[in-house]
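#help-structures
NK: newbie question, is this the right format to request a structure? protein is Cupin domain-containing protein
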Amino acid sequence: MMKRKLIAALVSGLLVLPSLATAQQTFSVKPLVEKKVTELPAGDLFWRIETFDSKEQAQAAAGPLGLVAEYEGKVWLFELGRAGEASKGGKRVAEIGPLPKVNASQYLLRINEAGGPPGSVTPVHTHPGSEAFYVLAGELTQRTPQGVARVSAGQTLVGHAGDVPMEVLSSGSSELKEFALFVVDATKPFSSPAHLH
């Protein structure tokens, strides 16, 4: 009798495992492009996202705070600057800001490609600076102690100032694809574990 109960428990456990595996799918985060700089312009800063016909055109248009990357068959320029600026030859995709201020002796500008299937979520973490988002597909939700923000394809989100605990999840019914745009203190760890209260 005990053997039958054990076998029944194991079989029912195996039937539950696939649904648990689906619920625990990984949120993928990969650096796309980055650079370190020692100065940022004064005043309010915005991320400008543009696409170009060629990598050479994008690199020619990029200023000292511009990052060029190829992603999913397109050439992208991510430029940190003032609101309303535009690059010659670029097609405007989005402008995100104003960004929370970051004070440091050296800055890391980084663009990550990130996302995952519905239900995937990052660990709770902090960054030593600002993070902004542009959603390419799906829906993104960000949870912080200040509340919950949700954005979908074609929309942007300005994150919080540095060291605010957060988690990001794929909250839609289809796979999330997004760019995460960072201006952080390059002298500190890029990401640190945290807790949401």
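mod (FA): yep, format's fine, and the tokens are attached above. The chain has two helices and 14 strands.
NK: thank you!
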